[in-house]
Structure formats: structure tokens, C-alpha cells
Amino acid sequence: MSAFAIETHGLTKRFGDVLAVDRVDLRVSRGEIYGFLGLNGAGKTTTIRALLGMIRPSEGNVLVLNQAVGPNGRGPWAQVGHLVESPSAYPELTVRENLDIARRLQGIQNPKVVDEAMTTLSIASYADRKAGTLSSGNLQRLGLARALLHNPELLILDEPANELDPAGVVEIRELLRSLVQERGVTVFMSSHILTEVDRLATRIGIIHNGKLIEELDTDKLEQLRTKRLEVRARNLEGAFISLQSAGYKPVIQDETILTESTHAIDYPDDIVRILVNAGTPPTHLAVIQENLEDHFLKLTNDSSLRAQAATLVPGASAGEQSPTREEIASSPHRPAVGTGKNGSSQ
Amino acid sequence: MNSLLPSLWAETLKMRRSKVPLVSAIGFSMAPLAGGLFMVILKDPEAARAMGLISAKAQLMVGVADWPAYFGFLSQAIAAGGMVLFSIITIWVFGREFSDRTAKELLALPTSREATVTAKFIVIAAWSLAITLLIFGIGLLVGALVVLPAWSTELLRTSFINILGAAALTIPLMSFVALLASTGRGYLLPFGWTIFTLFLANISAIMGWGGWFPWAVPGLFSGMAGSRAEFIGPHSYAAVIITSLIGLAATFYWWRNADQTR
Q: Chain B within 8 Å of A260 (Cβ-Cβ)?
């Protein structure tokens, strides 16, 4: 048995002249939560549809749970739960009937699974309501219930937190986490909500213009979450030696001194004092924590895309964006001391 | 077979819960009722004259008020009206999966796509035949209430065969409607196709080669243009069968292989 729940080899999909997915090689290990990030039109949903055999790759191939996904829709679907794009249901049927259809089409004999899924997704009180009368949040829950109905080994979810209220987002996050921890389920999820992916995913793939441009594993994600103090000085070497002597374990990277010392991050004024006393006053001082959002925007570094990203990423719009490092360092003799995300000054 | 039963169950449930069967049954039951009204008018010439245009229309369509004329009217109603009504049923069964965006829930399942499509065709055929039988039943009731003359058991048998035959020739042609509801991912394309084929069926019948045009065959079979023997032969049935099989095969092929992007 392969260690991978999902494998794609050179997965490519063209729609006429449009290259929607470009030679994507994915390896999703069993039992991991893989976050699949990308802007609108990046190729997330096309990739997901290819994983589920809903579209035929122009090139490359797809293996799901070690089984080739056939051009005729064949695949290990009894072990796979999915939610693709916006949830849908037969509006004239009740919630229970919609799930009962899914149960039968999944080949499950036990009708109790419908009640269990409704309870798990907190929609049991809507069991006899017609799906057409559900709110979009409850429709999303119905879609998730359908995906979980048959206790799948692999969940492929396209924007699972869409339409959910904040409590619902937390509820689904905990549910997915427990499925992974208690039942060893593998989750492959796409999302626009970077904070959600950041909190949940154990590995992240970023797709842009159809290309998988980066994969972040646990170490890299942890690194992204780590706070650092960033120092610049005219006498960089002198400042470095002063901080090293004081035991802050600094490193130099791109003409900048970085330290992950908790004391330095909590008391940047001590750093200023040390450097001034050593005759190497800082020209720039900021506590930075590059998060997934920053990293994502940096990767998709295109001003035209930033505006689009701002609508997707809370706090990324021009009005809310943290000052850049250059802005903080604008006054060479008056060091700016930042403690916010990405070096916001105080 | 195992995967066909859940699909059949699902399609039947969707049909039962929908208002479309009821609306289509009510709509189509207007045919025997309208036929009954014409018979009432034709039975009383004085009243017919007093009613002016409606009476003239009734004379034009049916001629005389008796069981053979009434059954002939029903058979033609099934052939012409059935082409539209059965299309609406087919368009709903296939097209709704795209307009409700539920098609994607039928693809990555242990139940094969072939089972899903087969179940849909079975439900369409069963539903269309049930409506045909309902109309025949209502027709018998209305005819009895109007007390039409010239009844015979032989007439009942041949009329039943005629009406069911018209339906049986119309239903297989729905495979192309299903194909267009699928490829068009909704209602408009197949509905346009239905109107187009009805138009061409009339033209081809008028030009005398309706026997070769599959969509004209049910109407000609029903006696719409006169004795069926004059217009249709084995080639006509073959045209209907071949056309229907092409539509079926193309629909299955599309569901198996087409990119599903909605």
C-alpha cells in the first residue's frame, strides 16, 4: 500500500487555450491535512475535480488511495468523501431524504448513518426540512454530512468553511482535526481563508496560475509562525558582535540581523540600549512574524493580485495592511520599534 | 444491477417529491377533456352552430362524434402533445441536475454513472407511459360520460395499441433530448431542440418524406395525416430505433467521458 492518499504526476488540464492546471505533482500522505491554497482561478477546483475523476486530465495521471482515477469516473469512491465548490442538494427533498439518496448511492445498508451524520454536523433539527429552505450555512453542513456519511478514508473538500458562521468554522475545524487524530482520515482541503488553513493544515500547497509553486511542510509552517526581532544598523558587524556578546544568538540575513530570543522580542528597548551603548545605534528595529498570509502574498507577488487577495484575506487590504519594513526604517537615526505582524511600528 | 437499484430508488424519490409529475399529468389530462368537449359539441349540431368558432374548430379536428373519432383524437394528442410533454419530463430529469448543480454529486460514487443514466431513462419511460395510460383511462371515462356511439371491444383493442404505439415511438426519441439537456447543462437547449424537431416533423410530413424523419413517425403512426400505411413502413420504425439508439449511446458516452465542470 502506498504511503500516499493522493498522488498526481504531471497533472495538466487545458480548456481550449486556457491552461488551468500546469504539470502539478501532488503527494498527500495518509493521515495528513493538506491545505490547498490559491487565488480565484488559480486552478484549485479544477485540480479537485481531476482528483475526483470529474474532468479528464489533458496530461498526467491521478492516483487516489493507490487506485488510478479512470477517465470514465472509476475510482475508490466508496472510501472518498467530497465537497466540490458550493454545496448543492435537491431542493424539494428534505435533509434526511437528500442524505438517504447519498447513503444508497454509496451502497451503505445501515440507515442509521444518516442520523449520525446529521448529529455530527448539527443539522438533526432540520432533518425534515426541505433542503431548498435551508440557509447557505446549513446547506454547507448538509454537503459536509454527505461527504462524511460513509466514514471515508479520504476527504477532498473544496472550501469547507464557506458560508459558515465563526462558530461553525471552529466546529468544522475541530471535527476535521478529530477525524484525522481519531480515525486517521486524510484531508485534502482547498480554501481562501488562509488563517483557517494555517490553523488546521499540517502541510500546505500553493497553486498559482495553475502551477504548484510551493509546498510548506510542518517545519516551514512553524518557522513562519516564529517571531523574530529584526535589526539594521549602519555598522552591521558591530551591532552583530554586541548582540552576540549579550547572548542573543543573532544571525545576519540580507543585511539584517535577526534573533529569535524571547527576551529580545519582549524587551526590544533593551536591545536599543545595548546597541546605543556599544556605539552601533540601530536604524531599524522591528518584531516580525511572517505568517501564511504574508508568505502567500509574497509568493503571488503581483500588484494586480494583491487587490484580489485583499478581498480574500482579512486585514490584507491597503487600509489595514501593516507598514512595510521600508516604511518603518524611513528615518535612519530614529529607530522604529515594531511588535506587530510583519514589523508594525509602535 | 446492484448499483441500478439505488439509482432507481433515488430517481423515483426525486420524481415523487417533484411537482412536475402532477403538473404534467394535469396538463396532459386536458387532452381527453378537450376531446370530450368537442364530442359534446359535435353531438348537438344546433348547439355547435350556436357556439360559432369553437364548433368550427371541433368539426375541423374530429369530424364526427363517435368512439373511433375520439380515440383517433387521443392518439394524435399523444403523438403531438407527447413529443412536448415527454420532452419536458426528460428535460427536467436530466437538466435539473445541472440547474440545481447536483450533477457533481452523482459522479464520484460507487454507483456507476451508467446506472444513474439508465435509472433516469427508466423513470422517464415509466412516467411517460403512466401518463399515456392515465390519458387513455380519462378518455374512456369521458367518452362513456358523453355516451359516444360505435363502441366495440375490437375498437378498444386497436385504439389502445394505437395510443400506446404512438407513445412507444415517441419515448425512445427522448434520448436526444436527454443528450442535449446534459451537454447543454440545463433546460434551454433541449427545449429549443424539441420545438425544432416538431417544426421539422411537420415540414417533412407535408413534403411527403415524414416516414424517413424519426420525429415525424409518431404523428404519422397516430393517423394525423391519414392512414398510417400510406406514410410509414419498416424504414420508419428503423429510423426511430436507430436514432434513439444513437441518442442513448451518445448520452451514456457523454456522462462517462465529458468534463464535468458544474
A: no
